[in-house]
């Protein structure tokens, strides 16, 4: 049984007071006992604030990115060990916005994943095709190469500690959600590809989240699919009622 995960990616939103308000509004609304892991990924500057607010609850903290070196002359970067120190249990790596706007490649994503895993962070590894790639029939090839290159050198015992987020780029922040069938088809492909890279049991234990305009209205249908184990939620995670309704989908 794979435990469902609902993760909120706050992207570049929420200064201290707003972050405090949002997290304190979310906490009483989410059913912590419903068997769903809940993760919040705010910006670096409010990690401490959100950590203090979730202390004593089962809600977990994620960062939205990290660097691959632990320390050194790398102005502006934040290392996996520093994220652990700030109270993070998880880190999102390879989000399509980072690939699109900050030049992240499968190779840099791989370095980040390797470094993050070595500090004990659970990685939420994002993959997904663009609209042009989908329309030219390349979806599975793109997913395969993102997984193969992103996970190069990652051992079997580490893959089961990771979470994969399938986020079709054309569905992120656009209001267009993949249909339940499109999402399930991609998730099932990802699981089969992982089984080929590792083995069947490893692939069956990995949680694969869907991301792309998830809302209270579409979460149930997505979660009813065999290979969809949760959601990475962007826009809708910025509203306490919407995020809680998604987290309480069952
Ligand atoms: C995301 O930021 O990972 C995301 C899926 O965004 P949205 O839910 O807004 O599409």
What's the N-to-C terminus distance? 16 Å
Helicity range: 40-55%
Helix- and strand-based class?
A: alpha/beta
Tally of DSSP helical segments: 12
Which fold name fills CATH's third level, the topology?
TIM Barrel
Order of helices and strands: EHEHEHEHHEHHHEHHEHEH
User: What is the CATH level 1 assignment?
Assistant: Alpha Beta
Major sheet details = 8 strands, parallel, barrel
Second CATH tier, the architecture: Alpha-Beta Barrel
The distinct bound ligands, ions and cofactors come out as:
phosphoenolpyruvate
**Poorly predicted segments:** none
Annotated CATH homologous superfamily: Aldolase class I
How much strand content do the residues show?
5-15%
The gyration radius over C-alpha positions equals 17 Å
Overall number of domains: 1
Number of strands: 8
Question: Which strand order does the major sheet show?
Answer: 1-2-3-4-5-6-7-8
Q: Tell me, briefly, the overall form.
A: globular
Average pLDDT across residues? Answer: 97
């Amino acid at each position: 049984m794979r435990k469902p995960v609902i993760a909120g990616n706050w992207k570049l939103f929420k200064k201290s007071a707003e972050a405090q308000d949002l997290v304190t509004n979310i906490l009483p609304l989410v059913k912590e006992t419903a068997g769903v892991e809940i993760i919040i990924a705010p910006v670096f500057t409010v990690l401490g604030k959100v950590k203090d607010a979730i202390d004593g609850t089962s809600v977990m903290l994620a960062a939205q990115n990290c660097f691959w070196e632990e320390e050194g002359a790398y102005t502006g970067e934040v290392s996996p060990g520093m994220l652990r120190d700030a109270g993070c249990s998880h880190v999102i790596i390879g989000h399509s916005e980072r690939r699109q706007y900050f030049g992240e490649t499968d190779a840099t994503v791989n370095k980040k994943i390797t470094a993050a895993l070595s500090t004990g962070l659970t990685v939420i590894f994002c993959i997904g095709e663009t609209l042009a790639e989908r329309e030219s029939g390349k979806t599975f090839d793109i997913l395969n190469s993102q997984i193969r290159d992103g996970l190069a050198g990652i051992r079997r015992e580490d893959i089961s500690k990771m979470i994969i987020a399938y986020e079709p780029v054309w569905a992120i922040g656009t209001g267009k959600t993949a249909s339940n069938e499109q999402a399930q088809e991609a998730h099932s492909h990802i699981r089969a590809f992982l089984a080929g890279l590792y083995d069947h049991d490893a692939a069956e234990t990995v949680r694969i989240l869907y991301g792309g305009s998830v809302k209270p209205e579409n979460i149930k249908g997505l979660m009813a699919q065999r290979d969809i184990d949760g959601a990475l939620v962007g826009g809708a995670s910025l509203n306490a009622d919407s995020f809680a309704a998604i987290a309480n989908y069952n």
